[in-house]
From TrEMBL:
Coiled coil, from the record: none
Domain Tyr recombinase: 161-337
Record's protein name: Site-specific integrase
Record keywords, A-Z: DNA integration, DNA recombination, DNA-binding
Keyword Glycoprotein on entry: no
Any GO BP: DNA recombination
InterPro entries noted in UniProt: CB, DNA_brk_join_enz, Int_N, Integrase-like_cat_sf, Integrase_catalytic, Integrase_recombinase_N, Tyrosine_recombinase_XerCD
GO MF annotation terms: DNA binding
Ranges for domain Core-binding (CB): 60-139
One Pfam family recorded for the sequence: Phage_integrase
Keyword match DNA-binding: yes
Source organism, top-level taxon: Bacteria
Length: 340
């Protein structure tokens, strides 16, 4: 009997057969999944389906399992890039090892190595999640039931939230570096990021059809938490968008993610090298995601309440919003002074 399940943006069709392996396939639309299931069921009824040998066994190489997972599961996820990167690293480590040999001790050794290399608790948990999902796939796609090596391993405690603020002086230096190296797209992206608080992926996937310059709004259809939201445009962000070339149906920022990473690293290194003041160099540990933290903190300093902040940031819980909001002492003092 066929069943269709929606997983993220994809549809998984499954045909369960008594005494035989389950047949599965993933499609981009429900209609494609239904068509595949109906055709296969018809072949099964007529007895013309050619039975294939089981694609996997306990001795299957981790490399083959991981590559299948990337091609059939990761590709449909919003975190496809990061999850694929994790699997590529795991393939280098366990590529030729049979999936049945991946056990708890292997995972603990991986955890300890990641910790020694300075990786954060959140990153290690992402590795745990990827490994666990792969073993769930082995059972779900191919009925290959193996002990999940993540079972019984405690997840790492959440990393402490970053409290770094981007000062107006730092922002000015970064934008001047964009001008120096003739990087107008990066300059516009940084301004929009620090004015709207959008995530990098949301900014990069923004299309002109999602921009309403008249009513000063951006429409985000695909977000990290799966809920669409509207972003109000500040006067500065509105001016920045009006300066860009508008291509009907095109992306607002026609730049690849790799180019963005390289360009941001270039101006960060330049600002780090140009820092002449004493004390800790504020550009040394600067990340692109810090612009989202700074944007939400500035909105908080401007007096927006938690409901208004969450509507803009997309955070569902106060706990997550607090990790991103770092009110300045000046803003707090100003409010305290009103009551004196």
């Amino acid at each position: 009997m066929a069943s269709i399940q929606k997983r993220g943006s994809a549809y998984r069709a499954r045909i369960t057969r008594q005494g035989k392996s389950t047949l599965c396939a993933t499609f981009y639309s429900r209609n494609e999944a239904l068509a595949w299931a109906r055709e296969l069921e018809a072949k099964l009824r007529l007895g013309i389906y050619e039975e294939k040998s089981p694609p996997v066994g306990a001795d299957m190489a981790f490399r083959a399992a991981a590559e299948h997972y990337i091609a059939t599961h990761s590709i449909h996820k919003r975190n496809c890039t990061s999850e694929t990167g994790i699997f590529k690293i795991l393939i280098k480590r366990w590529g030729d090892l049979a999936v049945s040999k991946i056990d708890k001790q292997q995972v603990l050794a991986l955890r300890d190595e990641l910790l020694n290399n300075g990786r954060s608790s959140d990153t290690i948990n992402h590795y745990f999640n990827a490994i666990s999902k792969l073993f769930q796939m082995l059972e779900g796609d191919w009925d290959l039931v193996l002990p999940n090596p993540i079972k019984g391993i405690k997840r790492m405690p959440p990393s402490a939230g970053r409290t770094k603020r981007i000062t107006p002086e730092m922002e000015t230096q970064l934008l001047l570096a964009c001008n120096l190296f003739n990087l107008p797209s990066l300059r516009a992206i940084l301004i929009i990021s620090i004015e709207t608080g959008m995530r990098r992926g949301e900014t990069m996937s923004l299309k002109w059809e999602d921009v309403d310059l008249v009513n000063r709004k951006l429409y985000l259809h695909t977000t990290k938490n799966g809920e669409a939201r509207q972003i109000p445009l500040t006067k500065r962000s509105l001016i920045t968008l009006k300066e860009l070339e508008q291509i009907v149906g095109g992306f607002v920022f026609p730049i690849t993610l790799d180019s963005l990473r390289c360009q941001f690293k270039k101006i960060r290194k330049h600002c780090e090298a140009s820092w002449v003041q004493s004390g800790i160099n504020p550009f040394k540990e600067l990340r692109f995601h810090d612009f989202r933290h700074e944007a939400i903190s500035r909105l908080s300093d401007a007096g927006l309440n938690v409901i208004e902040l969450s509507c803009i940031s997309g955070h569902k819980t106060l706990a997550m919003l607090k990790r991103y909001t770092h009110p300045s002492h000046q803003a707090i003092f100003a409010k305290l002074d009103l009551h004196e």
